[in-house]
Write a structure and sequence with these properties.
Length: about 900
């Protein structure tokens, strides 16, 4: 058994992983104790990676029009489709939509092909949905897209401010590092977030501000710093410009104004200002809550202003810190994967940079202007401007705002190519050509995490079927389009060229310089240890932070403070906030394969404040419709007093593969930030109302259940699937319907219980002692021990024991875990409650008693919360999410 060092494919923390294939075909996963990002820690998603490697859902051969073909035919068809579109309509008639899941080498070749050889900048990435506002804010302030700090800064800070970031669930290992530092040195934590998230539960101060009032808060902070004499620093005078104008625009933002605009208590506003003013070592972490807004770039600059004016940047324990959602969002930024960038952090609107890159690539052309950003790109597809579109490693039919419009665009596009690892995604259904791509564990390359650390992703499994790495597919198509410069021997050669370009005519003029890696041969590349940039050739690798010296990448090397004006007060009515759950990743194509990750939230939820629920006549656990007028989704209601009144939260993950009519991006709108082009995915107006179901059902089935016209949500369990249904149409014969929905064969043996007075119907089908399916129907969502029923498919039910299944309850021999809290150890709320009732009143004691919280630690905040609260509140706690 050989252990391979690689990197987690999920979030931007970029944890190192040890992957060890086992003789039985499984892969053992452990955190890499030598990786500087995680020092051996992993979160629940990372720990479960070994459960996501099955090939049952994989795309393993190229397809044209739904029929398998060989690679030669597929590559020729792609090259022909793009060449003809360019010949007939020009280079701007084609586009690539790529992904932060791609490795840097894949990204580099895609960007080179589009910008240097096709001659268009119509390549954009799903990272546009994640952190484009941070890129734009960085470039406005620093003259470069530079993240100044490192993860160590969170451990060395005295105050950490988390803005629009549920770090506990979205970057769990970094959050664990922060909590460990707090334990050691008493770090103060402030959370700025409209929702009381798991992160907010751990904060010393939670500022539950009104949505999109962040600029008012940070403009008020800038004024408060100026009023306290903290803005007139030597750093400001020597190394920044624009401070006077920024402070002047912030003058009206006194505490009363900020309190009124944000909806916060004035005393909390003052306390935040005092905390920030009183701690020099302050790190401000921000992510999607800041970026995914129509004022996203202004929010970023309002934060950067406060650090620049005080000179709190680039030194240990201080600085602004954008954390990326995706594993290689930073790598995409490095190669120029955004439509408004060129390559190696060079600007596409700089003629000298364009000439330099074209010369380096020996390219026949170079894109002369920025291309279409994601929302505009799909609008151009819908309008017919784009004739050929290649989507790589992403699922825009689910993840883009106004997703129904994106589907219409894909359906209307004359030529759609999709490179995918998964055979059936909502986007792949629109492809004319499907190309089987290698995925995590099979491909080789590099990723860059949020602290600029480049790590290797290494293959530890053979390429399955005909799957190929993305960079190789792109290079083959480029060659068939008649282009030279794509004859790479392997990913090491691609990376060497990328590194070489970063240092090409750089001379310290650009932040991104990894030219020290340009001479790595294949062996050295294979052995490459995690390395933080910059790492210019010939220089000792000592610099890990930027800007302590006050030298920025603007023309005069001064940072710019950008005057930011608070947005007008929010609209009345409900506001939809979307985000992530602890145990899920994007559209669930990978995390949706593991029963224990799905157990945390098996259904798409909508969290709302009890007062808003009461107004709408919605009860906890019922079904509701969230509707923006443009689109609607049916979701399970979760009531939470920690949800801000006037806003609802729904996760972004569910696609048509896992639920019916539950895609939340059918509801969101394509409104974007005017500077960054990032969609305001947290800003749709909406209404909520009850879903008028006539009946509700819960089922388990050994066969994959079929969908219905009403509500359904499916998740894998051991031995099969679990599914929730709700419908409006009357069902005449439930046994016939159950057999149809759950694929029960005619020869199965059925048992049933029916209570005509209450409308309860319970059925189970068996083959011998083995349960094939069970269905529980009721006029309201059935009250059941679902964990016990989930396990029914892998247990024996001899004789009359099978009637206990219909009871839907646990027992001494079949304990009911209740809702899952700890995914690593599969411990539910009931076992934790029992441990608390037995006198274990600390997280450590509960862990020692039942194992909960002893794995990755992501659930320790929830366990602490459960200890603090009563079990009656557990459902509320569990409904919180990113
Ligand atoms: Fe992966 Fe979790 Fe680490 Fe993120 S925090 S990189 S999801 S193990």
């Amino acid at each position: 058994m050989t252990t391979t060092r690689t990197t987690c494919p999920y979030c931007g923390v970029g944890c190192g992983i040890l992957a060890t294939p086992q003789p039985d075909g499984t892969v053992a996963i452990a955190g890499d104790p030598e990786h500087p990002a995680n020092h051996g820690r992993l979160c629940s998603k990372g720990m479960a990676l070994g459960e996501t490697l099955s090939l049952d859902d994989r795309l393993l051969t190229p397809e044209i029009g739904g029929l398998p073909v060989d690679w030669e035919a597929a590559l020729a068809r792609v090259a022909q489709g793009f060449s003809e579109a360019i010949r007939d309509h020009g280079p701007d008639a084609v586009a690539f939509y790529v992904s932060g899941q791609l490795l840097t080498e894949d990204y580099y070749v895609a960007n080179k092909l589009m910008k240097g050889f096709i001659g268009s900048a119509n390549i954009d990435t799903n990272s546009r949905l994640c952190m484009a506002s941070s890129v734009a804010g960085h470039r406005r302030a620093f003259g470069s897209d530079t993240v100044p700090g490192t993860y160590e800064d969170l451990e060395q800070a005295d105050l950490v401010v988390l803005v629009g970031s549920n770090l506990a669930w979205c970057h769990p290992v970094l959050f664990q590092r922060l909590l460990a530092a707090r334990e050691a040195r008493g770090t103060r934590i402030v959370v700025v977030d409209p929702r009381r998230t798991a992160t907010a539960e751990a904060a010393d101060l939670h500022l539950a501000l009104a949505p999109d009032s962040d600029v008012a808060l940070f403009a008020g902070l800038l004024k408060a710093l100026a009023d306290r004499g903290l803005a007139d620093t030597a750093f400001r005078r020597a190394h920044t410009s624009g401070a006077a104008a920024a402070i002047s625009l912030a003058t009206p933002c006194d505490e009363a104004f900020v309190a009124a605009r944000t909806g916060l208590v004035a005393a909390d506003v003052r306390r935040f200002f005092e905390l920030f003013a009183g701690h020099e070592r302050v790190v401000t972490v921000y992510s999607q809550g800041v970026n995914q807004s129509a004022q996203g770039t202004d929010k970023v600059n309002a934060i950067l202003n406060c650090h620049l004016v005080t000179g709190r940047i680039g030194r240990p324990g201080m600085g602004p810190f954008s954390v990326t959602g995706q594993p290689n969002a930073m790598g995409g930024r490095e190669v120029g994967g955004l439509a408004n960038m060129l390559a190696a952090h060079m600007a596409i609107d700089d003629p000298a940079a364009r000439e330099r890159v074209q010369r380096f690539w020996r390219a026949p052309t170079i894109a002369s202007r920025p291309g279409l950003k994601a929302v505009d790109l799909f609008e151009a597809v819908l309008s017919g401007q784009i004739k050929a579109l290649w989507i790589m490693g992403t699922n825009p039919a689910v993840s883009m705002p106004d997703a129904a419009r994106v589907r219409a665009a894909l359906a209307a596009c004359p030529f759609v190519v999709v490179s995918e690892a998964v055979r059936d995604t909502d986007t792949a259904r629109h492809a004319h050509v499907l190309l089987p791509a290698a995925t995590w564990g099979e491909k080789d390359g590099t990723v860059t995490n949020s602290e600029r650390r480049i790590s290797r992703q290494r293959a530890f499994l053979p390429l399955p079927g005909a799957a190929r790495p993305d960079w190789a597919i792109l290079a083959e198509v480029a060659r068939r389009m008649g282009f030279h410069g794509f004859d790479y021997a392997g990913p090491a050669a691609v990376h060497a060229e990328h590194a070489d370009l970063s240092g090409f005519e750089n001379n310290g003029l650009r932040d991104f310089d990894i030219s020290a890696l340009a001479r790595l041969d294949a062996d050295a590349y294979d052995q490459l240890a995690p390395v933080q940039w910059p790492c210019p050739a010939g220089a000792a690798r000592v610099q890990t932070r930027f800007f302590a010296d006050g030298r920025f990448y603007t023309d005069d090397h001064r940072a710019r403070l950008i005057p930011t004006a608070p947005a007008m007060p929010g609209r009345s009515g409900l506001r939809l906030n979307t985000g992530r759950l602890r145990d899920q990743w994007h559209t669930m194509t990978r995390t949706g394969k593991t029963p224990r990750l799905m157990a945390h939230h098996p259904e798409p939820v909508c969290v709302l404040h009890p007062d808003d629920a009461k107004t709408a006549g919605i009860s906890d656990g019922s079904l509701l419709i969230v509707d923006s007028g443009q689109g609607r989704a049916i979701l399970r209601a979760g009531l939470d007093p920690g949800q801000r009144r006037g806003s609802v939260f729904a996760p972004m993950h569910w696609s048509d593969r896992f639920a019916g009519a539950s895609r939340i991006n059918a509801v969101t709108r394509g409104v974007t930030d005017p500077v960054s082009g990032q969609p305001a995915l947290k800003g749709a107006d909406c209404t909520v109302r009850s879903y008028p179901a006539r009946w509700h059902a819960f089922a388990v089935s050994a066969e994959r259940p079929v969908s219905i016209d009403g509500y359904w949500a499916m998740a894998p369990v051991k031995g099969g699937y679990r599914i929730d249904y709700a419908g409006i149409s009357k069902v005449k014969d439930w046994q016939t319907e159950a057999a149809r929905l759950l694929g029960v064969p005619a020869q199965a043996e059925w048992i049933s219980l029916h209570d005509a007075a209450t409308g309860l119907m319970r059925l189970a089908a068996f083959s011998g002692d083995r349960c094939l399916a069970a269905l529980f129907v009721a006029p309201r969502p059935p009250d059941l021990a679902r964990g016990v029923i989930d396990a029914a498919l892998t247990q024996d039910w001899p004789g009359t024991a099978r009637y206990r299944l219909l009871a839907g309850r646990g027992g001494a021999d079949r304990p009911d875990e209740g809702a899952l809290v700890c995914a690593c150890q599969s411990v539910g709320i009931n076992r934790i409650s029992a441990a608390i009732a037995a006198g274990h009143r600390t997280v450590a004691a509960v862990g020692a008693a039942c194992g909960a919280g002893t794995g990755c630690g992501s659930c320790r905040g929830q366990i602490a919360d459960i200890i603090r609260n009563t079990q009656e509140n557990a459902r509320r706690i569990l409904s919180r999410s990113a």
